[in-house]
Amino acid sequence: MTDLEGVGYGVSLGFGINATGEAVGRSYRAQTVPTAGCPRHTCVTHPADPFSWIAGSMTDLGTLGGTFSEARAVNRNGDIVGGSNSDAFLVHSGKMSNLGPGEALGIDDFGEIAGTRRRSPGPGLVADFLGAKR
């Protein structure tokens, strides 16, 4: 077992790995930001960024904005999918693209992406989607 460490706070969660050993997931940053939910005091949380880990080197993939993002899957070609706040993303050749509302959960070696997409604003209104990356 290999400790992936992290991008700042030292805590990471792995969600996907491909046939070449590239792992992807979520890593928490060292700084804190205010968050809602504490009635008596100000709550804070550590923002999370998606990462790629290859042969001992972790790369922070960045976000589409906001404080919570995670990479969920990676294919043999190194294409990575996940979610950033409320939007699905694809990282292809090092560039993150917004796929729209929802979260991308898987990508095959042909670049077909599976995930969930909101049909309309509001909780619980989701639909499965399958689409090509390009």
- By DSSP (H or I, 4+ residues per run), the number of helices equals 0
Sheet with the most strands? Answer: 4 strands, antiparallel
User: Strand order, biggest sheet?
Assistant: 1-2-5-6
Radius of gyration, taken over Cα atoms and rounded to an integer in Å: 15 Å
Overall 3D form:
flat
The arrangement of helices and strands along the chain is EEEEEEEEEEEEE
Query: Structural class, please?
Result: mainly beta
Stretches with pLDDT under 50, minimum 5 residues? none
How helical, in percent, are the residues? under 10%
Number of strands: 13
Write a structural description:
- This protein has 134 residues and is an all-beta fold.
- The chain contains no helices and 13 strands.
- The strands form 4 sheets. A 4-stranded antiparallel β-sheet has the order 1-2-5-6, with no helix packed on it. A 4-stranded antiparallel β-sheet has the order 7-8-9-10, with no helix packed on it. Strands 11-12-13 form a 3-stranded antiparallel β-sheet, with no helix packed on it.
- A hairpin with a 5-residue loop joins strand 7 and strand 8.
- It is flat.
